[in-house]
Design goal:
Layout: H1 2-16, H2 64-69, E1 77-83, H3 90-100, E2 106-112, H4 115-121, H5 129-137, E3 144-147, H6 155-160, E4 165-169, H7 183-187, E5 191-194, H8 202-211, H9 213-222, H10 234-293, H11 298-314, E6 333-334, E7 359-360, H12 363-366
Parallel strand pairs: 1-2, 1-4, 2-3, 4-5
Antiparallel strand pairs: 6-7
Helix pairs in contact: 9-10
GO molecular function, one term: nucleotidyltransferase activity
Keywords: Coiled coil, Lipid biosynthesis, Lipid metabolism, Nucleotidyltransferase, Phospholipid biosynthesis, Phospholipid metabolism, Transferase
Region (Disordered): 1-35, 313-367
Length: 367
């Protein structure tokens, strides 16, 4: 029994080799599952001011060509990416993923600007600086986070953090009285461009919320937030409650309409079935009627057959013409029963004194 069991297990293993989900293979165009990698996912990225830096080793930047070829494991390419990262979304994560994958051996440092700098140069944020720091810390592509990052990168800051390249999208970023805050980085050959993710940004998310403000205000009122917490006036609060009741009534009416439509549809389907069955039965009845009482129906044939039989029964039998003639014997005499010997006489005809006359009737005439 053991050799058979081992053979079955080996055959199952051979079947599973090179097979992806649902039995698909690479030849089918469906990629197989990747091996699970848990490195760097157990804890958030540390802050730069919490790390010890070994300043005994000199800081020598690597060139772009050297970075592309690959550096030793103990000397990764240090790439810096900065931003506000308010309402951290997939566009931010994709930009950091591109920065992490610029070179084969990359150490990604992410700088997050403080509330003070952001409010002065860009505008008010939804999340405070601590929330934004924490959001960036928990991105899987980030190796180190710089709090209170500068708005414009200085040579001293680049040297302190031993930055080799700065990653950002190639669109000129005009701010703080400059047409492009990354202009001097590009001129120094330290700029590594990334691509923006279309259709998603912090401004787009805020625009959706502002556009549908009433919807989200009613949503949070339903979830237990007070009008004071939402900065909603007393009149608007009552208006939202009234709109909520109206929406419930509309929903009920819509549900009733849908149910009534379903009922009407079912009735129509049943009526169509009944009509079809009635038509089939009526055609069958008409066909049977015509077969019985039509011009060439069974009844006409029955009448013809009955008529023929009646005529045959009524008409006298004729002897065939080719039959031989036979001498017929004289018919026996037949006498009238009125008198014993004499037949009746006409008043003007024969005389009373004549002798009695007998009438002979043949057998055929008697019949």
């Amino acid at each position: 029994m053991e050799p058979q069991g081992s053979a079955r297990l080996n055959s199952r293993k051979r079947r599973k080799e090179g097979v992806g989900p649902n039995g698909a293979t690479e030849a089918d165009g469906i990629p197989t599952k990747m091996p699970r990698n848990c490195l760097g996912l157990r804890e958030p990225a540390p802050f730069s001011d919490e790390l010890e830096v070994d300043y005994s080793k000199p800081y020598i930047r690597v060139t772009y060509e050297e970075a592309l070829r690959g550096t030793p494991l103990d000397r990764p390419v240090r790439v810096y990416a900065d931003g506000i990262f308010d309402l951290f979304h997939s566009g931010h994560a994709r930009a950091l993923m591109q920065a992490k994958n610029l070179f084969p051996n990359t150490y990604l440092i992410v700088g997050v600007c403080s509330d003070e700098l952001t409010h002065n140069f860009k505008g008010f944020t939804v999340m405070n600086e601590n929330e934004r720091y924490d959001a960036v810390q928990h991105c899987r592509y980030v190796d180190e986070v710089v709090r209170n990052a500068p708005w414009t990168l200085t040579p001293e800051f680049l040297a302190d953090h031993r930055i080799d390249f700065v990653a950002h999208d190639d669109i000129p970023y005009s701010s703080a009285g400059s047409d492009d805050v990354y202009k001097h980085i590009k001129e120094a050959g330290m700029f590594a461009p990334t691509q923006r993710t279309e259709g998603i940004s912090t401004s787009d998310i805020i625009t959706r919320i502002v556009r549908d403000y009433d919807v989200y205000a009613r949503r949070n009122l339903q979830r237990g937030y007070t009008a004071k917490e939402l900065n909603v006036s007393f009149i608007n609060e009552k208006k939202y409650h009234l709109q909520e009741r109206v929406d419930k009534v509309k929903k009920r009416v819509k549900d009733v309409e849908e149910k009534s439509k379903e009922f009407v549809q079912k009735v129509e389907e049943k009526s169509i079935d009944l009509i079809q069955k009635w038509e089939e039965k009526s055609r069958e009845f008409i066909g049977n009627f015509l077969e019985m009482f039509g011009p060439e129906g069974a009844l006409k044939h029955m009448l013809k057959e009955g008529k023929g039989r009646m005529l045959q029964a009524i008409s006298p039998k004729q002897s065939p013409s080719s039959s031989p003639t036979h001498d017929r014997s004289p018919s026996p005499s037949f006498r009238w029963p009125f008198t014993a010997r004499t037949p009746p006489t006409s008043p003007t005809g024969l005389s009373r004194n004549k002798s009695t006359i007998t009438y002979d009737i043949s057998e055929d005439e008697e019949d």
